[in-house]
Design a protein that fits this description.
about 170 residues, alpha+beta, 2 domains, two-stranded antiparallel sheet, 5 helices, about 35% strand, repeat, REM_fam, DNA-bd_pseudobarrel_sf
Length: about 170
């Protein structure tokens, strides 16, 4: 359901890693609400059960410049306080595989919307998960990330010295 009370039936699914997604019905919802890449929004679960009700609470376009980035790989993440304590942020597996992140680099540049940059390390753990490591906690604190904040990371430069742009708060 959107903020105007309009609703769309949709199928909810779950990937093997536990990540939930909206399947059939998503395209109609996205088009009706004129959602574009760079828009941020949040769903609030207001009814549980076999037919849960999710309400979209807000949307803003955090990307105000050209839409050239639509070809650039990106992912959304939710900040957890535990990632600050453990000094890491895990990349989605499909993002890592499609963009060959780990084989080409051990460091990455993160740039916020204000243009300030931080160097962070990139590493793989024993189970094969790739994450931002040393430097991530400094970046998160400097950008005021709090538990539950949703943000987008866009890969703006590939290769041995990759760079990602942060869109959030």
């Amino acid at each position: 359901m959107d903020e105007e009370g309009r609703s769309w039936p949709a199928n909810l699914g779950q990937k093997n890693d536990g990540q939930a997604y909206i399947g059939q019905g998503w395209t109609a919802f996205r088009n009706a609400n004129k959602l574009k890449p760079g828009d941020s929004f949040m769903f609030e679960l207001t009814k549980k059960g076999k037919k849960p009700l999710l309400i979209m609470r807000w949307k803003t376009n955090t990307k105000t410049k050209s839409e050239r980035w639509t070809d650039a790989p990106f992912f959304y993440a939710m900040f957890r306080a535990s990632s600050l304590e453990s000094y890491w942020l895990k990349f989605p597996r499909d993002f890592v595989n499609k963009n060959d992140i780990i084989s080409k680099c051990s460091k990455m540049i993160l740039t916020n919307e204000g243009g300030r940059s931080w160097t962070v390390s990139v590493g793989r753990n024993n189970s094969g998960e790739v994450s931002l490591r040393s430097g991530w906690n400094v970046f998160a604190q400097a950008n005021g990330l709090k538990e539950g904040d949703v943000f987008m990371l866009e890969l703006i430069k590939k290769g041995k010295s990759p760079a990602m742009k942060f869109y959030g708060n």
